[in-house]
Amino acid sequence: MGGLYHGLQFAVTAVAGLAVGYWLDGRVLPSPLGMLGGFFAGAAVGMYILARELKKK
Prior knowledge:
The longest helix is centred in the last third of the chain and has 26 residues, at 31-56. The protein is built from two helices and no strands. The protein has one domain. With 57 residues, it is an all-alpha fold.
């Protein structure tokens, strides 16, 4: 799989985390904390998936 796939996979996980954080901001958490936490959690998951995929090669 090419670099485009890995880049998109990382971006999608980061944006998904951002979306979950945005949703939490409206429900539970103070305004920027959910978005920031969600983005960094999504980015961490994206990095984990990227490292796991690259280790297979």
